[in-house]
Amino acid sequence: MKKQRKILEYHAIFTAEEEGGYSVYVPELPGCISQGDTFEEAQKNIKEAIELYLESEENDLYEMSPDQARKQFMASIQING
Question: Residue 8's closest CA among 29, 22, 24?
């Protein structure tokens, strides 16, 4: 019988840095951060960072099913000040 693999989804927040490149972090995984000179490199690096994070933590503590992840989203809120 073929072993079934779990697919996990996380939200990653990318920030374009003034000096170039991107920083990126995963809010669901405290301390899981990375960066890259390009958006594509930052994507690759955060994927590796997530994999390493999950290897070193209690997996059940932070896992989120794909259905749970799809119910979350980010939106900008503007406040007049």
Answer: 29
What are the pLDDT digits (tens) for 54-75? 887 555 555 566 566 667 666 6
- Give the chain's length: 81
**In the chain, what are the domains?**
13-70 (3.30.160.250)
**CA gap 59, 37 in Å, rounded:** 29
Confidence (pTM): 0.66
State the greatest distance between any 2 C-alpha atoms of the chain, in Å, as a whole number: 61
Residue 17 has what pLDDT? 96
- Mention every residue, 6+ apart, whose C-beta is less than 8 A from residue 22: 14, 15, 16, 35, 36, 38, 39, 41, 42
Tell me how far apart the alpha carbons of residues 23 and 38 are, in angstroms, rounded to a whole number: 10
